[in-house]
């Protein structure tokens, strides 16, 4: 049986109900986190809760639960998903999602769900995926939503659909200054002659959890990046909490080198 954690208790997923007046449903007023769990072990829960709680404080949504209760709820949902997957003879890799909305009548909605997740095929970590650079600015680094994992995600979804329609895995987004900011669902890293660099938060990117850990380890550094830097790059990497570190092998249909650091950085992520 699939169980979700809903407003303080574990319930069968089919019993979850969202109030039609919920501000998250009506207005996209809320935040979410996506985590990966392998064999029932959620990855880097602390970093996800850091980002979630900081974001909720920024938009003024308070929770009745403390951090420890949320962490325990994530672990419970992951454990149930692992048991269900193992009983069905399936791989027990899950995508967990924490959703918090402003709710209705002053009570926020809190929901943690799990679904089976199939990571990218192993050969994509060797040869890379395709990316599409979208020329117009999609990211406004001055926006009150900049850096938030907001439920108002439609612009990202539209950009991703454009990329997928062109046969690409991801779309690369620029900010209002023409700087490379992020992918629709990933942070980006460029392998340049003098090191590995990811855009700074000031350029409008999401503070990704994998990005954070690689910065803490000193494996990458921050630098503003322009589309012209793609010409000098020795490779590009995409990161998020589901894929880890995935190399790019094509940009706009043109083959690029697969970054020599791809396997090393993916290994660092795997150790988190």
Q: What do these coordinates show?
A:
With 272 residues, this protein is of the alpha+beta class. The chain folds into two domains: 3-116, D-amino Acid Aminotransferase, Chain A, domain 1; 124-270, D-amino Acid Aminotransferase, subunit A, domain 2 (D-amino Acid Aminotransferase, Chain A, domain 2), CATH 3.20.10.10. Helices cover 29% and strands 33% of the residues. The chain is built from eight helices and 15 strands. The protein has helices spanning 23-27, 45-59, 67-87, 124-127, 154-165, 209-216, 229-232, 262-270, and strands spanning 3-6, 9-12, 30-38, 41-42, 93-104, 107-116, 129-139, 170-175, 180-183, 187-192, 195-198, 221-222, 236-240, 244-251, 254-255. The strands form two sheets. Strands 7, 8, 9, 10, 11, 12, 13, 14 and 15 form a nine-stranded mixed sheet that branches. The protein has a six-stranded antiparallel sheet with strand order 2-1-6-5-3-4. Strand 13 (236-240) and strand 14 form a beta hairpin. Helix 2 crosses helix 3 (67-87). The longest helix is centred in the N-terminal third of the chain and has 21 residues, at 67-87.
Mean pLDDT: 95
> How many beta-strand elements?
15
Distance between the termini: 29 Å
**Unreliable residue stretches:** none
Query: What is the CATH top level name of the largest domain?
Result: Alpha Beta
What is the fold named in CATH at topology level of the largest domain?
D-amino Acid Aminotransferase, Chain A, domain 2
Provide the gyration radius in Å.
Answer: 19 Å
- CATH homologous group name of the largest domain: D-amino Acid Aminotransferase, subunit A, domain 2
The ordered H/E elements are EEHEEHHEEHEHEEEEHEHEEEH
DSSP helix count?
8
């Amino acid at each position: 049986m699939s169980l979700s954690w809903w407003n303080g208790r574990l319930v069968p997923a089919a019993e979850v109900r969202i109030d039609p007046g919920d501000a998250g449903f009506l207005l996209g007023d809320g935040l979410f986190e996506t985590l990966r769990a392998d064999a029932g072990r959620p990855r880097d829960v602390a970093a996800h809760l850091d980002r979630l709680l900081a974001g909720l404080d920024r938009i003024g949504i308070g929770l009745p639960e403390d951090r420890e209760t949320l962490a325990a709820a994530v672990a419970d949902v992951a454990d149930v998903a692992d048991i269900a997957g193992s009983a069905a003879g399936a791989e027990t890799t899950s995508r967990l999602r924490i959703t918090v909305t402003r709710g209705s009548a002053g009570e926020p909605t809190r929901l943690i769900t799990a679904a089976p997740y199939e990571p990218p095929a192993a050969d994509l970590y060797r040869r890379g995926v395709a990316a599409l650079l979208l020329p117009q600015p999609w990211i406004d680094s001055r926006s009150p939503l900049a850096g938030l994992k907001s439920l108002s995600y439609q612009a990202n979804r539209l950009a991703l659909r454009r990329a997928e329609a062109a046969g690409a895995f991801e779309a690369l987004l620029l900010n209002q200054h023409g700087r490379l900011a992020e992918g629709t669902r990933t942070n980006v890293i460029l392998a340049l002659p003098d090191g590995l660099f990811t855009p700074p938060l000031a350029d409008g990117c999401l503070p990704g959890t994998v990005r954070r850990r690689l910065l803490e380890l000193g494996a990458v550094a921050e630098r503003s990046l322009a589309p012209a830097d793609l010409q000098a790059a020795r490779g590009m990497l995409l990161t998020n909490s589901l894929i880890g570190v995935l190399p790019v092998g094509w940009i706009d249909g043109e083959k690029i080198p697969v970054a020599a650091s791809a396997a090393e950085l993916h290994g660092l992520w795997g150790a988190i």
